[in-house]
């Protein structure tokens, strides 16, 4: 499967694995993806930093990608205590996958230092955060000069019409560290944002998992077990849907085939003060303010093409 819009710019994936982070990484790291991944940086979110970094190393090991350096980052939000999501992802953060301690090493360089170094030395770099934005915000605060060198920040986070998945008015990644999100969304950098509005339009269903199982490969078997674990049932039960959103995979799908998504240019502001609406993404969808429209907000996706792309990448192993 050729990807007509595959991005050629160098990439840093910043994540909190998490099953959907795992699928996003597996797609990106897959043989023939053509993506230029310079580093994977890890942030606390779905579970502790220690488990998220072990999970990131395990995923890269499963993909046979010992060439991609993995760096551990922030273990807590900028101001709030860490809130995790073990009830969704399991106590190890990857319910359904057999957990092991990979030989693949963690880099000694901290994630924020790596992000700053790569932004300063690599032209046209793209950041792809799929967890709380603590690492990205810390890098931007410590090294404001990098904002001008970042080509695009491709974010999984936020919600407009879909309201929230951790509170009635906030999506998890933004809720966990709204102060970091404010720094990133206020930064003078182009942002492409995949919130619940679009991730809830691409729900993986049993027929898709049957196709992954039918691949009859080690990767296919592992992902089938993961996609048939309690993780898959959590959102179905919560939202009463017949499928499960694979939120973070939208970022990689965009990098590979941007034209399966449609976008609207908007401004996004983050609620950081209210206890009731902490982490709310205030999306200026109808241009009611003169704030800069520096976010491409994903509004729709061709779900069939999305899953063809996902299964094609999984089949590449
Ligand atoms: O709200 C969904 C997001 O929160 C995903 O990135 C998931 O992995 C969790 O981090
Ligand atoms: Ca995530």
Question: Can you characterise this structure?
Answer:
With 317 residues, the chain is an alpha/beta fold. It has one domain (10-315): Inosine-uridine Nucleoside N-ribohydrolase, Chain A (Alpha-Beta Complex). The protein contains 13 helices and twelve strands. It has an eight-stranded mixed β-sheet with strand order 3-2-1-4-5-6-12-9, with helices on both faces. Helix 1 runs parallel beside helix 12 and helix 5 (134-142) crosses helix 7 (178-186). The longest helix has 14 residues, at 49-62. It is globular and about 55 Å long. It starts with 9 loop residues before the first strand and ends with a helix. The mean pLDDT is 96. It binds alpha-D-ribofuranose and calcium ion. Alpha-D-ribofuranose is lined by residues 16, 18, 20-21, 45-46, 130-131, 156, 165, 171-173, 247-248. Calcium ion is lined by residues 15-16, 18, 20-21, 45-46, 130-131, 248.
């Amino acid at each position: 499967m050729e990807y007509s819009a595959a991005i050629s710019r160098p990439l840093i994936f910043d994540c909190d694995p998490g099953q959907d982070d795992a699928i996003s990484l597996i797609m990106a790291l897959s043989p023939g993806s053509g993506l230029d991944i310079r580093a994977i940086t890890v942030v606390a979110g779905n579970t502790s930093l220690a488990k998220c970094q072990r999970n990131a190393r395990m995923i890269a090991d499963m993909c046979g990608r010992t060439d991609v350096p993995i760096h551990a980052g922030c273990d807590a939000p900028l101001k709030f205590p860490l809130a995790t999501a073990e009830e969704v992802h399991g106590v190890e953060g990857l319910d359904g996958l057999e957990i092991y301690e990979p030989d693949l090493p963690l880099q000694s360089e901290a994630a924020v230092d790596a992000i700053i170094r790569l932004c300063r030395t690599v032209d046209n770099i793209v950041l792809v955060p799929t967890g709380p934005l603590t690492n990205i915000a810390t890098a931007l605060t410590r090294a404001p000069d990098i904002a001008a060198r970042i080509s695009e920040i491709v974010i999984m986070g936020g919600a407009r019409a879909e309201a929230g998945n951790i509170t009635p008015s906030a999506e998890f990644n933004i809720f966990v560290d709204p102060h970091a999100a404010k720094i990133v969304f206020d930064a003078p950098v182009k942002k492409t944002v995949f919130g619940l509005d679009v991730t809830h339009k691409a729900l993986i269903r049993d027929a898709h998992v049957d196709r992954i199982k039918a691949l009859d490969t080690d990767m296919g078997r592992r992902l089938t077990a993961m996609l048939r674990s309690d993780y898959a049932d959590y959102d179905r039960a919560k939202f009463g849907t017949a499928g499960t959103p694979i939120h973070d995979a939208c970022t990689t799908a965009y990098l590979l085939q941007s034209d399966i998504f449609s976008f609207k240019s908007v401004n996004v502001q983050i609620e950081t003060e209210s206890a009731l609406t902490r982490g709310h993404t205030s999306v200026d969808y109808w241009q009611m303010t003169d704030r800069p429209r520096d976010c491409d907000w994903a509004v729709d996706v061709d779900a069939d093409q999305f899953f063809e792309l996902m299964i094609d990448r999984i089949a590449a192993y």
